[in-house]
Amino acid sequence: MKDFNFDTPVDRCNTASLKWDRYGNRDIIPLWVADMDFRSPTAVIEALGRRVEHSVFGYCVAPKSLNEVVVEMLGRRYGWQVDPEHLVWLPGLVCGLNVACRSVAAEHDDVMTMVPIYPPFLTAPVNSKQELVTVPLKDGKEKWEIDFVLLEQSITKKTRLLLFCNPQNPVGRVFNHEELVELVSICSKHDIIICSDEIHCDLILDADKKHIPTASISQEAAARTITLMAPSKTFNIPGLGCSFAVISNRDLRNKFLQAMQGIVPYVNIFGFTATEAAYRDGWDWHAALLEYLRGNSKLVEKEIGSMEGLFMHHVEATYLAWIDASSIDPLLPARYFEKAGVGLSEGSDFGFPGFVRLNFGCRRVLLREALQRMKKMTKSKSISE
Ligand SMILES: Cc1ncc(COP(=O)(O)O)c(C=O)c1O
């Protein structure tokens, strides 16, 4: 059961960790970039060990067995029947977002996305000299929602692509069947391609919710969707750079492959090895992970709910909490929390100033300590006002 003990400390300092190196020796608990502090499943670690032991690290291609494992997993978990020929392997999902922009839209075309959103969604169109159109999500009574009226109003004659994120980073929504049907119907009416980033699809926390791949809802959806997925968030292997696109529309797939030519490197051999092991043998670890994350999520919701000046909606999926801290600072509230010893992501990077994103994919004692620091800071701020 050692595999499942998420309370075991792992020192990530001086391990070339983006998350932990940011603050060096300063006493700031890093709860920002989206990786978790947990060891990956033993199956992954052992498979990598065997690959190292082999000691020849030549160029590689995705093995047939890997494609079979992925196709089987998509069928079993999501009832989604995918032809292995429709898989395109990528060294990262951000790369997939950028390739999608380049393959679907021309320079100066419009590319839409809904904010707040994971920052590379905001830069991918700009990288391709396209016009970024952002549509705010609605801060509903109980949850964040798609504003379909505003979305449709924001479409122009040059809108070619919607960069969509489901489950949504940072608001943690799992979009339901009705929402996906409406989204596809609008995109179909205006002939817009959907790039659906589903990297968080295996991190559904609510027992009564399930992930539905956008492309799986109808033939029409499949024909206009580029799906992006990865094992990286699920099994905590983002540093191994392995993800994939599913594109059933042959024209769209060919354009995507064409846009990758010469600039997108192959996935490395450890990425393939870890992905196959994780998808084949990592699911018991994953079930235990979800239980642990549910506990962390509950703690975050309870504590944030009790803090002066902070508000968040329930997290349906992901290990990310999206917190309204605009009464602390309407522009850059993460600065305040950093001074209090907690490193959060700044909402302005997600196109939504006044908010912070908290990554609770860490040991519970560390999370508790961070929340205590935040509580102390919010208390002293409200007393000083
Ligand atoms: C929605 C979303 N897409 C993509 C990524 C990053 O993917 P990759 O590291 O494979 O480029 C993240 C990482 O946090 C994410 O949250």
Please describe what this structure looks like.
By secondary structure, the protein is an alpha/beta fold. Helices cover about 40% and strands about 15% of the residues. The strands form four sheets. A seven-stranded mixed sheet has the order 2-10-9-8-7-3-4, sandwiched between helices. Helix 8 links the parallel strand 8 and strand 9 (about 225-230). The longest helix is centred in the C-terminal third of the chain and has 23 residues, at about 285-305. The chain is globular. It starts with 17 loop residues before the first helix and ends with a helix. The model has no long low-confidence stretch (mean pLDDT about 95). The site of pyridoxal-5'-phosphate has 13 residues, from helix 4.
Descriptors for this entry?
385 residues; 7-stranded mixed sheet; 4-stranded antiparallel sheet; 13 helices; 15 strands; 39% helix; globular
Strand and helix layout:
Blueprint: H1 18-21, E1 29-30, H2 42-54, H3 64-78, E2 87-90, H4 93-104, E3 110-115, H5 120-127, E4 131-136, E5 138-139, E6 144-145, H6 148-153, E7 159-165, H7 177-189, E8 193-197, H8 219-223, E9 225-229, E10 243-246, H9 250-260, H10 269-281, H11 283-305, E11 311-312, E12 320-324, H12 334-339, E13 342-343, E14 345-346, E15 355-359, H13 364-384
Parallel strand pairs: 1-13, 3-4, 3-7, 7-8, 8-9
Antiparallel strand pairs: 2-10, 5-6, 9-10, 11-12, 12-15, 14-15
Helix pairs in contact: 2-10, 3-10, 4-5, 4-9, 11-13
Bound molecules: pyridoxal-5'-phosphate.
